[in-house]
C-alpha cells in the first residue's frame, strides 16, 4: 500500500494543483506588501533556542497589530501566546516554532544571516535559520491576518502559540509547564506545519499515524584514573572504556530490538584528554536516541545505562566510580497524527486546492519534533502536523539527474523558496482552521 501511494505521488509530482482557496490572491498580496519583509528580517536575524527575545518581541507586536488578539509574552521563557476569540465554538491551537541553529550560513541567498549569539552554554556561536522556522512564524502572522478578516466564516477561539526551543526539543514542554493549557483556553485540536526542502513547492503532505520519531539526548560521563601515557597500568583509561561503550551500543538496535521496529543510537560527540602522553581521568560522550514507540524507547535507554555501567565494572572501576548516564533533559515522545483529524484536514486541503496538492512523503530518517508534547494522549488534544514543500520542482529534478543536490535541513547550505513556502503555508493553515471552526 505504501509503495502504491509512493508511485501514485511520483506520477503526480509535475501536476499542478487544480484549485485554490478564494482568499489566495489576498495572501499573495499580503506577501508582497508585508510578509516578505518580515520573512527576510527573521532570516537575517535568527536566534538560538531559549534566546529568541528579539523574535518573540516582533511576533508579539505583529499579533497585536492584527487586532482582536490577546497577547501574552514570556510563556515558558520566550514563548508568546495570542488568543483570538470569535464567539462560542471549538478551540484550535496553531503552533509555530521560532528558534534557529548554531551554524554559519553559506546558503547563497541574497539576505543571509551574519549574526552571532551567546548560547545558553555560554559559548558565542554563529546562528542561522537552517530548518525553516522563519517560514513557520511568517506564515503564522499571515494566517492571523487572514483569519481576522474572515470572522464571518468561523466561530470559536484560536490560540496562536509561538514556541521557543524546538531545536533543543524543550520549548513545548516548558510552555505546558508554564500553564499553556490552564492559563489559556485548552484546545480541542492542535495543528502545525513544517516546511521541507525535500518535497516540491506547491505540495502538501499529511498522513495519519507517526509523523516524527521520539528523541532523547543522552550524556555519558566516564570517570577514569589519569596517569602518564607511558604507564597505563597505573590508571584507568576512560578513552578505552568510551570506545568499548561506543561499540557495544551498536548492538542495542541490531541485537536487542526486533528487526521490524526502527531505532537509532548515535554517538555524536566523544571528548577526552588534552595531550599525547597523558591518560585522561574523564571522557564525555553525547548521544541521540530515536524510536517510534515507547517500548523501544525504554529498552534503548535502559540498555545504554546497562552497557555504560558494566563496561566500567569490566574495567575494574569501583561501584561509586561507574560511568554516569544523564537522560531527560532534552527529549520528546513520538509525534502521532490523529487519524480522524488528519482525515478532516486532508479533506479540507483537497477541497480547497484539488486532489493533486497532496504529496506522499516516505520517511527516510527519524527526525523528531516536540509538537508531540501538545498532543499527548493524556491531554486528549488530537493533533495534525503537516508538511509544506519548500524546493522548486526544477531543482529537485536537476538533483535527481546528477545536478546540484538539494541542501538538507540543519546544513549551512539549507535554503528554501520563501514566497511559495510562506504563501502555501499561510493558505493551508487558514484552510485548516476555517474547516475546524466553520459555522
Automatic annotation (TrEMBL):
Keywords: Hydrolase, Manganese, Metal-binding, Signal. The Mn(2+) ion enhances activity. InterPro entries: Amidohydrolase, Bact_exopeptidase_dim_dom, Peptidase_M20, Peptidase_M20_dimer. SUPFAM superfamilies: Bacterial exopeptidase dimerisation domain, Zn-dependent exopeptidases. It holds the Pfam family M20_dimer. This is Amidohydrolase. Its cofactor is Mn(2+). Residues 1-19 form the signal peptide. It comes from Sphingomonas tagetis. GO terms for molecular function: metal ion binding; N-acetyldiaminopimelate deacetylase activity. GO terms for biological process: diaminopimelate biosynthetic process. Residues 214-311 form the Peptidase M20 dimerisation domain. NCBIfam families: amidohydrolases. Mn(2+) binds at residues 131, 133, 167, 194, 410. The keyword Manganese applies.
Amino acid at each position: 500500500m505504501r509503495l502504491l501511494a509512493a508511485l501514485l505521488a511520483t506520477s503526480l509530482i509535475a501536476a499542478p494543483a487544480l484549485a485554490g482557496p478564494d482568499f489566495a490572491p489576498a495572501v499573495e498580496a499580503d506577501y508582497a506588501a508585508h510578509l516578505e519583509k518580515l520573512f527576510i528580517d527573521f532570516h537575517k536575524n535568527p536566534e538560538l533556542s531559549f534566546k529568541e527575545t528579539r523574535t518573540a518581541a516582533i511576533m508579539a507586536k505583529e499579533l497585536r497589530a492584527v487586532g482582536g488578539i490577546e497577547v501574552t509574552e514570556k510563556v515558558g521563557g520566550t514563548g508568546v501566546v495570542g488568543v483570538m476569540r470569535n464567539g462560542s465554538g471549538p478551540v484550535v491551537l496553531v503552533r509555530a516554532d521560532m528558534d534557529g541553529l548554531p551554524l554559519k550560513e553559506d546558503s547563497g541567498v541574497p539576505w543571509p544571516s551574519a549574526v552571532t549569539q551567546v548560547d545558553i552554554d555560554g559559548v558565542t556561536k554563529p546562528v542561522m535559520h537552517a530548518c525553516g522556522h522563519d517560514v513557520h512564524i511568517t506564515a503564522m502572522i499571515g494566517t492571523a491576518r487572514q483569519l481576522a478578516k474572515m470572522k464571518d466564516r468561523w466561530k470559536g477561539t484560536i490560540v496562536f502559540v509561538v514556541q521557543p526551543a524546538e531545536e533543543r526539543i524543550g520549548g513545548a514542554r516548558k510552555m505546558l509547564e508554564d500553564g499553556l493549557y490552564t492559563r489559556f483556553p485548552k484546545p480541542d485540536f492542535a495543528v502545525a506545519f513544517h516546511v521541507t526542502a525535500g518535497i516540491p513547492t506547491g505540495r502538501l503532505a499529511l498522513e495519519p499515524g507517526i509523523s516524527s520519531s521520539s528523541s532523547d539526548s543522552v550524556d555519558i560521563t566516564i570517570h577514569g584514573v589519569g596517569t602518564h601515557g607511558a604507564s597505563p597500568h597505573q590508571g584507568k583509561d576512560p578513552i578505552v572504556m568510551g570506545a568499548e561503550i561506543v561499540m557495544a551500543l551498536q548492538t542495542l538496535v541490531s541485537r536487542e530490538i526486533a528487526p521490524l521496529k526502527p531505532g537509532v543510537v548515535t554517538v555524536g560527540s566523544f571528548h577526552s584528554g588534552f595531550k599525547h602522553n597523558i591518560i585522561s581521568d574523564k571522557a564525555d560522550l553525547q548521544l541521540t536516541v530515536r524510536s517510534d514507540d515507547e517500548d523501544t524507547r525504554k529498552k534503548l535507554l535502559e540498555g545504554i545505562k546497562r552497557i555504560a555501567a558494566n563496561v566500567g565494572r569490566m574495567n575494574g572501576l569501583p561501584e561509586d566510580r561507574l560511568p554516569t548516564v544523564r537522560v531527560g533533559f532534552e527529549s520528546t515522545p513520538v509525534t502521532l497524527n490523529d487519524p480522524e483529524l488528519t482525515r478532516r484536514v486532508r479533506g479540507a486541503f483537497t477541497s480547497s486546492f484539488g486532489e493533486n496538492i497532496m504529496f506522499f512523503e516516505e520517511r527516510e530518517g527519524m527526525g523528531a519534533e516536540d509538537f508531540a508534547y501538545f498532543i499527548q494522549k493524556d491531554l486528549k488534544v488530537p493533533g495534525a502536523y503537516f508538511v509544506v514543500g519548500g524546493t522548486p520542482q526544477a531543482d529537485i529534478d536537476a538533483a535527481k539527474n546528477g545536478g546540484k543536490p538539494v541542501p538538507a535541513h540543519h546544513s549551512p547550505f539549507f535554503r528554501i523558496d520563501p514566497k511559495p513556502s510562506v504563501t502555501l503555508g499561510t493558505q493551508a493553515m487558514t484552510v485548516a482552521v476555517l474547516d475546524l471552526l466553520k459555522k
